[in-house]
């Protein structure tokens, strides 16, 4: 299916690997020119070169930390006039509620709530003026089903979800949609980090930890960055203009709900 976005420009944050890279690749496969961002220069440039070679689209790169005001300013400068914004940032570390102090919460909010809001505020007005735009925020299944050891992520991403719920309905009339993608466990570095923590806590192998987690997922496996990216690309497509302020689960059925 043609998505109707060939020739559009997209800023995809934290896109050198994992879910962000899956989104960048999916958009590029439909002819979208990219601005890719990550903190690490080497991985970012390798990912960008691969996408240029495979899909023939223009790819600009900017290595910076999206959670900082300096990083956000750099991204806004290079991303002026983009049609698509994919917000993404690495999640806070796991722990227990007794572990976290104010600085931990501020860091989580900066990365997973305030950074996306800053980019939305900077880039959506231009989309509204042009009468078309798409924003997709990568959040987490934890906003629907809180994960005890990810309390920092639960809090920050739930805050962003609340912000989007109101904002999306204020800009939809100008042709701009804002939606959230809620990943469960996918085969990324984040999953490796979480599974490594389980191996240490329970004294089991990585294979055992992964099998244990996969058993909690009705699909019986981890998701892939490619299938996640394909869903992101659809939400960014011309066909998704009537999808507004939604939280789309990609968790293999792990969150059980009738609606």
UniProtKB/TrEMBL annotation:
Name the record gives this protein: 3-oxoacyl-[acyl-carrier protein] reductase
Pfam families: adh_short_C2
InterPro entries named among the record's database cross-references: NAD(P)-bd_dom_sf (IPR036291), SDR (IPR050259), SDR_fam (IPR002347)
Family statement: Belongs to the short-chain dehydrogenases/reductases (SDR) family.
PANTHER family reported for this sequence: 3-OXOACYL-(ACYL-CARRIER-PROTEIN) REDUCTASE, NADPH-DEPENDENT REDUCTASE BACG
């Amino acid at each position: 299916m043609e998505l109707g976005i060939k020739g559009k420009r997209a800023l995809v944050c934290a896109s050198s690997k994992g879910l962000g890279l899956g989104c960048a690749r999916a958009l590029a496969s439909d002819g979208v020119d990219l601005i890719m961002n990550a903190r690490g220069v080497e991985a970012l440039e390798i990912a960008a070169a691969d996408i240029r070679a495979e899909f023939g689209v223009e790819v600009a790169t900017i290595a910076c930390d999206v959670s900082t005001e300096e990083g956000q300013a750099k991204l806004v400068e290079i991303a002026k006039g983009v049609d698509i914004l994919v917000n993404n940032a690495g999640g806070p570390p796991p722990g227990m509620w007794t572990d976290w102090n104010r600085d931990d919460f501020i860091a989580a909010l900066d990365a997973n709530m305030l950074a996306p809001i800053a980019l939305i505020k900077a880039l959506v007005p231009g989309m509204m003026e042009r009468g078309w735009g798409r924003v997709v925020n990568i959040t987490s299944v934890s906003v629907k089903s809180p994960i005890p050891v990810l309390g920092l992520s639960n809090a920050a991403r739930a805050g962003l979800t609340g912000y989007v719920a109101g904002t999306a309905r204020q800009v939809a009339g100008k042709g701009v949609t804002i939606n959230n993608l809620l990943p469960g466990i996918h085969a990324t570095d984040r999953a490796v980090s979480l599974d490594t923590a389980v191996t240490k806590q329970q004294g089991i192998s990585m294979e055992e930890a992964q099998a244990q987690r996969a058993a909690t997922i009705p699909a019986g496996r981890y998701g892939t960055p490619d299938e996640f990216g394909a869903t992101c690309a659809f939400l960014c497509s011309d066909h998704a203009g009537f999808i507004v302020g939604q939280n789309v689960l990609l968790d293999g059925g792990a969150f059980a709900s009738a609606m």
